[in-house]
Amino acid sequence: MSITVAPFDAADYLTDEETVAEYLTAAMEDPDPAVLLAAIKDVARARGMAQLARDAGLGRESLYKALSPGAKPRYDTIVRVMHALGVTLQAVPAPDSGRTDGAS
To answer: Concatenated DSSP letters for 37-88?
Structure first.
């Protein structure tokens, strides 16, 4: 007897604003920028790439290209996409930033 398992797709679970915000926040905590781009792409697929592209003022192909593996999108592109997703970027102090220069 064999068991068939469907592949996991995060986009299937990104159904509300709070989940999307938590998912993107967790991705931003990873030091690898590719993780954030992959997470944004998951949310974009959950919302619909074509609609997100329109909301962000981008062409659909441009959005796919900006979120493709290895892409290095411009900051303004990421801000436009995040705004279209209804989320904002936020800077908070790191739990242990390791600063030793005495600055506060």
So the answer is: HHHHHHHHHHH-HHHHHHHHT--HHHHHHHTSTT----HHHHHHHHHHHT--
